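Researcher: Please predict.
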Amino acid sequence: MIEPNPKGEVWIFAEQESGQLHDTPLELCSKARGLADELGVPLAAVLVGKGVRELSYRLISGGVDKVYLAEHPMVDHYQTQPYAKLLCNLIETHKPQIVLFGATVMGRDLAPRVASQCRCGLTADCTDLQIGDHEDKRAGKTYHKLLYQIRPAFGGNIIATIVNTERWPQMATVREGVMPMSVPDSKRKGQIIDVDVNVGQQDLALRLIESHREAKKVNLKGARTIVAGGAGVGSRDSFQLLWDLANALGGAVAGSRAAVDSGFIPREYQVGQTGTTVRPALYIAVGISGAVQHRVGMEESGKIIAINWDANAPIFQYAHYGIVGDLNVVLPKMIAAVKARV
C-alpha cells in the first residue's frame, strides 16, 4: 500500500495497439486535465510499447504535461504480467494520487492486477469523475479533494459515488465514450520521460505467434444521427422501419439492451450502460421505455425525439420532443416527409 500523496500527479494509462492510440485515453485527457488543474498537480500519461514515441506528442497536445515512455521490444505486444510489473514499479517510484484506465478489454484486464499488487481500491466502469470532500462521521474526520468515482450500481437503478480515503493511488476504469474528446492543441509543450523497462524473459508467460483482428463494422460514436429501437419495436422485421428511417436521414441504427436480448439487432449496435455511449446531434428513440441503463448511454445527445405508444414512458421525461403513437404509423410518415424534402 502506498501512503496518500496529495501532491502526487494524476495519471492516465495511454492504451495503444500496433502503434495506434485508442480513443479512450484521448477521451480521458480532457477530464483528467480538469481533475489535475483542480488539484494543482501535473497530468501525466504512461505509454508502453515499441516505437511509440510519436504518440507522446498526441497525448501532450491533448492536455498531458508529462509522458512516462516505456519503449522496449519485450513490451511490443500487450501481456498482463510485464505491463502490470512496469506500472507498479512506476507507481511505487512516483506515487501518483490518481491512476485512470479505459474500461476496455485491456484496461479491464490490467487495472485489477495493478490495484491488487499496489493494495489499493479500484472502481470499475465509471461514467463520471469529480473532485470533492468526504466526511467520515464514524471516524470524526474530513478528507479533502478526493476523487469521486461515479458509476451506475444495482443494475443501473442508482448512481453510486465511491471514494478511496487511504489506500492510494485512487484508481478507476472509465467507460468508453462517456468523456468528450478534447480538441488537440499542437502548440502545447510537454515533457517526455524515458523509463527503464525492467522486464525479463521470465515475465513473458506467452509468445505471440500471429495476431488477427477483425475490423470494427459499427461506429456508433461517430454517427451524427442515430435511430435506436427498444423492445417496443416488437420484432426483427419491424426493425426494418428503423433502418429505412436511418437511411433516409443518413444516420445509423442502434438498439437498447432489451432489443439486443430479444434478438432484434446484434450486440455491437447496443447503446446504454453495457453498450456504447453516444453523443449524436439527433437521437430518435423508438419503442424504448427510457430506463436509466439506456439513458446513461445517450442522454448527452443534442436533440432526443422519443416515439412510444405509452404516454407515461420514462423516456418522455428527458426527450426534447415526444410522439405518442404506433411506430408502424409514425415511422412511415417520417420517412415520407424526409424523402419529400430531399
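Model: The longest strand covers residues 141-153.
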